[in-house]
């Protein structure tokens, strides 16, 4: 296997934004996920619409889209992208639906762009911020919520083409 190098580190060891000016524009898509575990009572507040701050899942979806659009302002070496697609889904997970027995909200994000560089960071940021928004809106009743499993599921496009997460870690 060829030696891989970190692209955001130059020959002198300094951080840099990668020069993508010579790369061709291609369609790129990334899918990421996250999970926020909570008490069953908290999940019931969310799904019944009884949360004091309003529609938690609608707010989380909007926050995820907004976060995808602002990713380059948060991640120092991330290129600003003209995002063409940002979708966030938030699905309740009830008892017995996960092997580990946790209940909560499963977030899946899909981001797309036609450009010179990938959109993985936008999908991951969207998933993270959607989970953080759920926490923010419900922390008054459940400070023990835990954000976990934020990870890239799939990316397609560019020179490296398709990558998909297998069942295990890679």
From TrEMBL:
GO terms for biological process: Mo-molybdopterin cofactor biosynthetic process. Residues 17-158 form the Molybdopterin cofactor biosynthesis C (MoaC) domain. Pfam families: MoaC (PF01967). The keyword Iron does not apply. Substrate binds at residues 77-79, 121-122. It comes from the Bacteria. Pathway: Cofactor biosynthesis; molybdopterin biosynthesis. The active site is at 136. Its EC number is 4.6.1.17. It catalyses: (8S)-3',8-cyclo-7,8-dihydroguanosine 5'-triphosphate = cyclic pyranopterin phosphate + diphosphate. GO terms for molecular function: cyclic pyranopterin monophosphate synthase activity. Keywords: Lyase, Molybdenum cofactor biosynthesis. Belongs to the MoaC family. Catalyzes the conversion of (8S)-3',8-cyclo-7,8-dihydroguanosine 5'-triphosphate to cyclic pyranopterin monophosphate (cPMP). HAMAP family: MoaC_B. Homohexamer; trimer of dimers. This is Cyclic pyranopterin monophosphate synthase. It comes from Slackia piriformis YIT 12062. The lineage of its organism: Bacteria, Bacillati, Actinomycetota, Coriobacteriia, Eggerthellales.
